[in-house]
Amino acid sequence: MYCWGANGAGQLNAPGGLFTAISAGEWHSCGIRDDGVVVCWGANDSGQLDAPGGIYTDISTASYHSCAIASGGAVDCWGATAPTAPAQMLLKRLGLDDLLDAPLGEFTAISAASGYSCALGTRGTVTCWGDTTWGVADPPSGEFTAISAASGYSCALGTRGTVTCWGQNDRGQLDTPDGAYTAVESGELHSCAIKASGTVTCWGHIYGGLERAPNADFSALAAGRWFYCGLRPGGAVVCWGDNSSGQLDAPDGTYTAIAAGDTFSCAISPDQAINCWDWTTSLPQRIKWADQVNVTRSPGDANLP
Predict the structure, then answer these.
(1) What is the pTM of this model?
(2) Range of the domain at 88
(3) Residue 87: CB partners within 8 Å, gap ≥ 6?
(4) DSSP secondary structure string, 24-42?
(5) Looking at residues 1-24, what average pLDDT do you find?
(6) CA distances to 65, 79, 121, 130, 189 from 46, in Å
(7) How confident is the model at residue 302 (pLDDT cuts 50, 70, 90)?
(8) Nearest Cα residue to 146 out of 118, 169, 173
């Protein structure tokens, strides 16, 4: 796995081991090792790194909490702890005191956002819990295959490839495009989806380079706060949007999965090993420096990998 971007809370200091899944939150990340165990790193001011024991199949991280799906389909969440009585009162006043109270049932996918989480049931229905502002905890009925929760709104992919979003819409977050899509990822006030043809369409509050999505085919997307990274069909990483913390400086090579946080990203290499770079820290076992860091690519670059 490679990580790049800001490292103010140790987000890039990924642990050694082999991983099958990765999720990047605002200032922390969690991965699922090849034995199903969850490992987290980065900020821990609210217990974000206190992952439970057990075997898990899917994971999602947010600002101050994370959730994962256990091998039996149950959802476990952790983090969002309040060390003092005033902080506990604040969580209650914000309606976040039940953020970790995941519903009972069997689920196949999970997506956590700031203040709430949503999960996809075995029959394709969406269940959300936590903050109820803007109706984020009231998903539409129907059958879905994927879900992406963001700040104040969520989007889901229907069985026929249509995108449905709900929640806050002050910046066009819910103005979904027509057509059939294979993946959707939602960021701060914006979303992008992969068309059936492989190209990317974005909507919402698109500025600061977000409008410059490369004219290329992608197999997966990851949404950061104000940037996106995508996997090309051959496994190369391409990023666009804000680059104030090196978010777009993805490494060369091929990858099998990608995740984006507030101002950083992580990717899993084909050998499942973790490979990070941060020029101010020493590297733990199995971590190695990136050999080369790409400069930002223009969307019309004919030499896109």
Answers:
(1) 0.85
(2) 18-127
(3) none
(4) E-SSEEEEEETTS-EEEEE
(5) 74
(6) 8, 5, 28, 16, 24
(7) very low
(8) 118
